[in-house]
Fold this protein.
Amino acid sequence: MKNNRFKLILIAVVAMVSVWSIWPTWRDHALSEKLKSFRSSEDSLKFAIDNREAIEHAKDKSLKLGLDLRGGMHLVMEVDILDLVEQKAWNKDATFTRVMESVKSQAATESNVNIVELVAAGFKKENIKLSRYFYDMRDSDQDIVNKLNAESKDALTRAKEIIRNRIDQYGVAEPVIQTQGSQRLIIELSGVTDEARVRKLLMGTAKLEFRLVKDPQATLRAVQSISGVSLAAPVAPAPTESVAPSDSAKAAAPVVAAPSPATAPAPAAAGIKKLSDVIGMLPNGVVFAPAYARDQVTAVLDRPDVQALLPQDTQLLLAAKPELAANGEKYFPIYLVKKTPELTGGVITEAKATFSAQDNQPEVLMSMNDEGTSKWARITGANIGKQVAIVLDGAIYSAPVVQSRIPSGNSVINGIGDLNEAKDLEIILKAGALPAPVHILEERTVGPSLGSDYIRAGMLSMMWGFVAVAIFMVIYYNKAGIAADLALVLNILVVISVLAGFGASLSLPGIAGIVLTMGMAVDANVLIYERIREELAEGKSLRMAVDTGYKRAFSSILDSHVTTLAAAFLLYVYGVGPVQGFAITLMIGTGASLFTAVVVTRVLFDLLIDSKFMDEKSFG
Amino acid sequence: MRIFHKTNFNFIKHRKIAYAVSTILLVVGMASLFVRGLNYGIDFKGGAEVVIRFDKAVDVGDVRSIMEQAGVNGSVKQYGLDRSLLLKTDYQGDTTRLKALITNALSSRLPGNPSQILSIQAVGPSIAADMKMSAIKALAAALAGILLYVSVRFEFKFATAGVAAIFHDVLTVLGLFSLLGGLIDFMPLEVDQSIIAAFLTIAGYSITDTVVVYDRIRERLRGQKPSDYERIFNESMNQTLSRTVITSGTIMISVIVLFIFAGPAIRSFAFAMFAGILVGTYSSIFVAAPIVFDWQTRSKSPIKFRGA
């Protein structure tokens, strides 16, 4: 039979390609088992070095496991385009703020919309030309929308690059970073142990600014001008539960100087507290907030109505790290700084985390480009004896007094908690600042121990699924069942090898898809066998019955495979993450089963009937 | 081995009973959908799920009250694994803080029983809304696609009845999820992405059994008198009964294996598949074919068979 020879060759090729594709996975497994088997770590290290190439090759080509199986983080992040638009605007006024607020609330309810279009529509509703706030006066609305769209597209690409840089420098194997839609990034990191640190690293905007600190008298006057504002925001009341009892506020006062009357906290009986109740002022111009009230004070200082009370072009900022008073209480110094920065982090070219020579505390050394260096020299030269605050993401890390003009373009950030934080800061500063803040929309973290539980569960279900289906087929269809089982083995081989060959990863839903495919793959055989039984019952010869059985059952088999493929395809298109893994294995499995059931078992029958292994009774 | 050998059930005669059963299933399911709604998972609702494993056995009630006092609102349930609990909360925001809240509360209140957070899943509201939209799109596209395919492959009446059967199957399972959602402790039956995957698979698979029955009816109906239709329908359905049940049976084996072995993350999915295949098999015999029969006997125009 010529036809069969071709089919046999085809089957052999498919089987060989499958085994060839799965081989590295098996090899990888065997090698890591071998590595584990050594008693001393020297032996295993020696083995690892001797076989480095083989191990790496196997690892590279082996079937990848999904994040849920090996442990890791899956994140969906959004670049805050609204913030970017706000950055681009100039001469912002009350109307601008109002329109932006309404756009913001609109954007929160409608998901995944084009923010730029929303902003444009918002201003159009108010009959305001966009050119009043954006770009050039002569630009038409459409020009500005186009420009802003281009900016936001660029922001997404840049954010992706910057985040990739940060992850690469932090050191995660095979990170996956993709853009999704107009403002989202999908990030997959495997084997991350310290998620909190990674999260911070990814989200850190690292907006570095050098700002002039105002003198103590101005600071005191400014604080007094806002000390009467209430802690509760005018619209949404701030949570007051977190406020500690008032006596601890008293204790928080540093003992170096007697607290001024303003420090004495008023009893909380009134319910709504004033700012002066939680911040302390010393006559020498030192203003501070106790650690427990830090979030509240930051929130109050961020409010536009409070900022309006301060002198022109100034801002009150808290220190990033608390200082320890003699009695052990922590408090955060507050500084009055110029709102316009003298210099920003854009000029930083190099950063290095290290320990300070003086007090052995972690710090980050930075150097600047030419433009930054000359500006920095001018700024330091003009402000000798004054304080310059180093502000990172809105918090003051240090405010050293300028001793002399600095011509080298070097600066340093200190007041950093530990070396890890300093290292992360180094990474972020080197990778550059994100063009706009990013928010985490979705996070799925699976620890490695849960992952190995899932692997065990997945393996168990694959094994039992195969055993149960295979045994059932043999019981119900006798020798023909064996042919179906052989086809099933090939089917599973094909699914796994396609996954491994195309570098797709296997997740728990993917394993579920494989198990489900086992039940579906034999369906085609069931349809054929039932038909053959019917033909045999009509008294046809075995070969005739097999021929007609395959021919007649084909239409139903095709229909069922096409509909299942269609459903799986749509699931892949519209689903995200885990569900896509299921859809992929279902698609491969369904496609493979069309081949194994229609071609493979057919050839097997021809061979088996020729060799007299099967007769009329072999279909049960 | 044969389970159904030369059966002779009169399916067409008793179709009214099947119609009644299906109507009750659908009405109860729809009523529950309107009254109870669906128990959405965090994929579609937003919120966070945390799996915590303890070193020693722990009382769910204790952990629940500890969490309440820590200000983490939500439900605490046994997770299918050993000594593990699933905490579900509508907490939105920084997971670092959530994690700190949980670990601090547990380590201070249960010092003798160290615990470990195995996994955290947090989904923000905007992305949850997106996922819901995608799920609806996928379902709608799948149904439309299958309708298109079946109407190309089959005559109009067959195609319409087949798609009606798919709707019947998906809606029944949806109704079941609404009825039982949150009632069973080891299986929350929340509607999330994996359940949508189950629905799509059910929709794709539901037509499989139907096609098998249809193929036989078509084959035998050609050139027959309408007065013989009832006999032919019955005979066809009896002849295909075995393969309809066996094909579903092999998938049932897979699904049951998944339900038992694949762990808590897959359990609701396996349950949906189980119910869907059961209803799907029933509907191909008792819903799809009888609708075609009723339609055919009532309409004056005979079925126009395509091709050879």
